[in-house]
Amino acid sequence: MLRWMDSADDYDTAHVLQEYDKASNISITAANKRTGPQAIHAGANTGVRKYFDSQATWIVGGAFYLGNIAGVDTLMWIRDGDNQPAKLRSNTGKLELTSDTYDTQRDITDDVVLSANAWTYIEFKATIGNNGAYEVKVSGRTVLSGNADIQKGANATADNVMWYAVGGEIDDLYACDGTGADNNDFLGDVKVETRIVNGAGAHSDWTPSAGLNHQCVDEIPPNDDTDYVSSATPADKDSYSCEDVALVGNIKGIQILALERKDDAGAHVTRLLTR
What we know:
This protein has strands spanning 2-6, 22-23, 26-29, 39-42, 46-55, 57-65, 72-80, 83-91, 94-99, 104-108, 119-127, 132-138, 141-148, 158-165, 169-177, 197-204, 207-208, 229-230, 238-242. It is mainly β. Strands 1, 3, 4, 6, 11, 12, 13 and 15 form an 8-stranded antiparallel beta sheet that branches. A hairpin with a 2-residue loop joins strand 8 and strand 9.
């Protein structure tokens, strides 16, 4: 099941922690991007982290631009809380699978598969276990696969993933788990495209702070409380038309993102809808 995707094109540096659960020394850049207008820039040994529920199998992908491949740098990390069952990293341009707190090597490519100062699309699949399974693809080609001890602690599951880059950029990220009938394996070398609201939809029940409803939710990056729609009425709906999709080929899934806040006491629930 497709659980997350990100193009980094719909927010700025100030909103990174409204997209991810943890991030440090991260900025959004237009200077070097793979697709779309922006990418995530990571400082020294930093990245972005997204929490989910516990699953046995995770598949994560992303495009990486590394200015230097001489050292040992983390790329993607499949974690169980703060335990470290499966980590994929660049080791002088080779891809290396490690596990546990001490980065015990489980496998490494024979050849250098990464290039400095170039975008490379990498996918990492891991089924957590003492005899767990793993596979790594570069631009759709399998470069590592096998079985190894990739369980840290009592749980044969993981519940969060991280994407890393050391002084480089990451773009077009996704995360899938192994459940469901669709998107339960590698998606391939994909592009994540952001489409923005551009008109009214079938429902306009919420109250705009100024102008028309869709004009209050169409900014990139978000302008927070400058303009907005609001409602305190159960079952109110707001919907909007969006820009056309420009992609050619198979669409793997869609993801709706909303920036929301609650301004009074008590429990409130909102749901996102698609027509």
